[in-house]
Amino acid sequence: MARYAAGRLLTALPVLLLVSLLSFAIVWIVPGDVAAEMAGPTATAAELARLRERLGLDKPLLDQLIGWYAALARGDLGESILLRQGVGAAIVERLPVTLSLTVLALVIALVVGTALGIVAAVRAGGVADRAAMGTALIGFSVPDFWLGLVLVYVFAVQLAWLPTGGFTPFTQDPLAWLRSMALPAATLALSQIGLFARMTRAAMLEVLRQDYVRTARAKGMPGWIVVGKHAFRNALIPIVTVAGIALGVLLGGAVVVEQVFSLPGVGRLIVGAIQRRDYPVIQGGLLLTATIFVLVNLAVDLLYATLDPRLRHGRG
Questions:
Q1: 78's torsion region: left (phi>0), alpha (psi -120 to 50) or beta?
Q2: Among 5, 30, 62, 154, which is least packed, fewest CB within 10 Å?
């Protein structure tokens, strides 16, 4: 297992290298003078020169690239021009909001979507199957920002059950945290509920056709044991794979949801940085988000190998 994990880690390094290069290249990809865009139209020539020096744009490209990687090696992501704060500190300050939103949305999507998929597979072709797949279709079709506004109107404005926005840390008040996260997480989870439902249904249908499942039923085992113990356990591998992909999608979707619900997360930080052309924050946010996505997929690969030992031995 250790050799397999080391091999997967080595394959992830080129991806991280490419992402770091793309993050570095942002200031060169955008049209125009980056320093002039950041400083604004009223900046003097002296102010522009100081900003270019501060950003290292006055150095040759190779020196800038070497300095970029040297700073990354020290854990230095630069300093936000507008926040007057280190980019790393700004991201770490807001990261718990984004992670709690993403993880809670993933749990909701996984539990609800898997349950719908199991029901649809067990009752294939029936009313429950059509209802579950109809719910999945709705989840794929409804935009996050529209659903978020509808949920706010119904549950926060009309019923006054939940807050319209804001964030309470879990360590401060777990119940208040759950209330502040309920609507954003439900909004973010809906599209992935459909994904989990479809994947679970397909995997379960394939497993339920296997001979060992028929044998278990022929022996008189209760249906819930056949479905839960024999079928679902063997359908877990594709579901775990989808969970890794879904987490990356949820991280991206958190940008929109954080704006709708005024959550002080990394997504809102990046959107604000784009609007105000704060390129160090954009670079750091892109690099961090991509790194989390790569590490999550690495963890999924390792879990995949744990569930199916044939993979780490090069079989299957």
A1: left
A2: 62
